Amino acid sequence: MEWKQMPLGPLQTNAYILINTKKEAVIFDPGGEGASLNDWLQKQQITPVAILLTHAHFDHIGAVDEVRDEWSIDVYLHDNEKDWLSDGTKNGSSFFMSGQTITARPAEQLITEEGTLQIGDFTFSVFETPGHSPGSISFYHKETNTVFSGDALFAGSIGRTDLPGGSQEVLLQNIHDKLLELPENTQVACGHGPVTSIGKEMDSNPFLSGF
């Protein structure tokens, strides 16, 4: 399997397309530009089987309905944010988008606990990593040695915690207890910016030093 990073939407949020040998794919956080994403998938002859959301902030969900409808696939989201997709106040678009509200229909599949998530040939370990938002989750894909961390952990930084439901203490504890327990060579596919690794962040991330 392999994956592609594709910055999309108003804040150039990183969408990731994880592709298996049958050219099926799981899409993480399609933040916008749904027509362009669908067009690319069609040209590559890739068939999505699901959309996985690390959380439901507006910059991660802008293309959810357009992609979901094009391929008739389910959206997965943590239960703690089940009503955020349809609420511009909760997903933040009402505050940050100058009057434009970004919404989507509710998710078909709600994740309620940590554990193994199987979607066709794709297997993930799901970690609850709130702190940036109350329903933030990270998806670890052992086969590609990658954790799709959303806005929990970045290269040299962590997710902002000044939004509703945020807590720096909770976020740092979850990063320490869950993400930093992964193998040090695990790739961290972040919600914004470049890909990093667990080992690199353990060694050099100023937010994690001494925690």
TrEMBL record:
> Gene3D superfamilies, from UniProt?
Ribonuclease Z/Hydroxyacylglutathione hydrolase-like
Record keyword Chaperone present: no
Q: Where is the Metallo-beta-lactamase domain?
A: 12-192
This protein's cofactor list reads: Zn(2+)
Keywords from the named record = Hydrolase, Metal-binding, Zinc
* Pfam families linked to this entry: Lactamase_B
Would you tell me the protein name for this molecule? MBL fold metallo-hydrolase
